[in-house]
Amino acid sequence: MSEAKLKILVVEDEPDQRNLIVLMLAANDYQVTSAESVEAAIVLIKQDEPDLVFSDWKLGQLTGMDLLNYVRRERPDMGFIIATAYGTITHAVDAMHAGADDYLAKPYQRQTLLLAIDKVAKSIALKKQNRRLASELSQQQELVGLVGKSTMMQKVYQRVQRVSATDATVLIGGESGTGKELAARALYQLSNRKHKPFIAINCGAIPESLAEAELFGAEKGAYTGANSLKIGKLEAADGGTVFLDEIGELPLLQQTNLLRFLQEGVISRLGQNGELKLDVRVIAATHRDLQVEVAEGRFREDLYYRLNVVPIHMPALRERREDVGQLVEHFLKIHCRQYGMPTAKLSSQTLKCLLDHPWPGNVRELANRIERFVLLGDEQEMVNELTLTPQMLDTNGFILPETGIEWDLFEKDCLQQAMTKHEGNRTKAAKFLGMSYKAFLYRLEKYQLV
Questions:
Q1: What's the Cα-to-Cα distance from 375 to each of 100, 344, 387, rounded to whole Å?
Q2: How far apart are CA 333 and CA 314, in angstroms?
Q3: I need a surface site. Which of 44, 97, 192, 204 has the fewest CB within 10 A?
Q4: What is the pLDDT of residues 61-80, one digit of tens each?
Q5: What residues contact 204, with CB distance under 8 A and at least 6 apart?
């Protein structure tokens, strides 16, 4: 009979009829329980959660319709077949309108009952399959902080999910602002190491003179100012994952030390005679073309191949414009929640401007613009900014007076908000606004905010 092997609850107040139906269904390999009243049926529904209810219409003071209404309210996905007395077609019509999957008119034959149950069983199986597919699709629209349903993002999701459970070294490429660190964190969160440390290192932000100590640690007295033992980032990540961002900026000497670690799994602290065995998964990222860096002698070829075991490319936002709308909603929710504001919405005109924008700063630029909109609440200013052309700006990126756009107040407000948010840290404020540090200082001076 049916391959579904559903759990079925039979609700019938006449004992002989109830027992007959139970035996019939059990003989066809269904799991069957029974109840003599609506009240008893509700207890069993809560307790056993059957897949399908087969109920008579007449059940004492309450009816099968009362039970159907309860099921559709509390368990909308549960199958329901109702049996009605001969000649009461209006009852059958009412039941179907109320959400019954099928009805049988008494008296009915054994085969008629089994066919009706088989039909509902197939319907339930199809609903479960559709829910599973919908759930999978929903997961692929967002994966551990990564957002987007474009074909290019599907490839990212698939590769992240495929290698996350392994210890394979991953090299994430892509322009600045595409979400390389988010991809690294997704790999970490989906891995068996998720309860161990995740340590992110910006290789471009470490002074060359301190790079060895930062990465590998240093013994007390190893260099001037080393007044105590320093644990390096790799050692601190033991058992977990280290993310080497902007790996292309790592000095050649430290490239050699990193290669040794990747090959042998050991490090030596600066000033240490012995070795330390570590268990660390390495994920690296770069906006540079490392093959070009190798060809020009700035990056070790053997290290490149050690890092590039599994490459993942994060696409530029202009390459996946179909994700812009979803990203806008995502950032609106995040930043409204962050600042304790009600969820904001953008007009269709603004959304069109967002879709048409070239996004040189990628997802980071979009996130910054949405955060500024949430803070300042001026949609027209954002539209004006998005529709600017290079011909409308001076060499420092300011709007030329002849454009007729009043912009100074807006720019000053943005600068002040950024400085307040980052407690006067100019480097962080400039990065938040997606500006170079030099351009940021120029604007601070212009508005006398220094």
A1: 51, 11, 20
A2: 23
A3: 97
A4: 899 999 999 999 998 889 99
A5: 245, 246, 249
